Amino acid sequence: MFRFTVEHLGFLAKVPGLPQVFDALLLVTTALRRTPCLVAMEQIETHLRSLPEMRLRPHRLGGTEFVLAGHEIAHLHGNGLLDVRLNAPERNRWVQSGRVQPHHVLLESSWVSLWITGAADVPTALELLETAAWLRASGFRT
After folding, report:
1. Is the pLDDT of residue 27 over 70?
2. What mean pLDDT is predicted for residues 63-92?
3. 102: Cβ–Cβ under 8 A, 6 or more apart, which residues?
4. How many domains is the chain built from?
5. What is the CATH number of the domain that holds 9?
6. 81-130: per-residue pLDDT in tens?
7. Residue 59 domain-assigned?
8. Cα dist. 92→84, 106, 113, 129, 140 in Å?
């Protein structure tokens, strides 16, 4: 459903509030059918809330946005899809390692995607987010 919506109905993302409603439905589905994913998502968000300079806020396309020094470094959709912004060398390193995929829409960008399915994905997600945070703190620009 998510892939179909993104590929064929992406233009609906411009309707105010609709991405948030869609993501809320994804989150409900995750809570009802994929509890391990929801628990892992909560663990990731709890960890990021504990970081002093990290801010969490609603993402413009639904889900939770992770902001460091006023810049989005990542966002987590209600279906467990974590999108993280890196620089080109780090993006290539992570994709080549096979632990993440190129961004699910912006295939050639510096963004990568990681599907969270359960507790086993939390360490990878946190390492990926720490890499993005370190890059942002170091002042990288894409």
Report:
1. yes
2. 95
3. 91, 95, 108, 109, 111, 112, 113
4. 1
5. 3.90.1150
6. 999 999 999 999 999 999 999 988 777 789 999 999 999 999 999 999 99
7. yes
8. 13, 14, 12, 15, 15
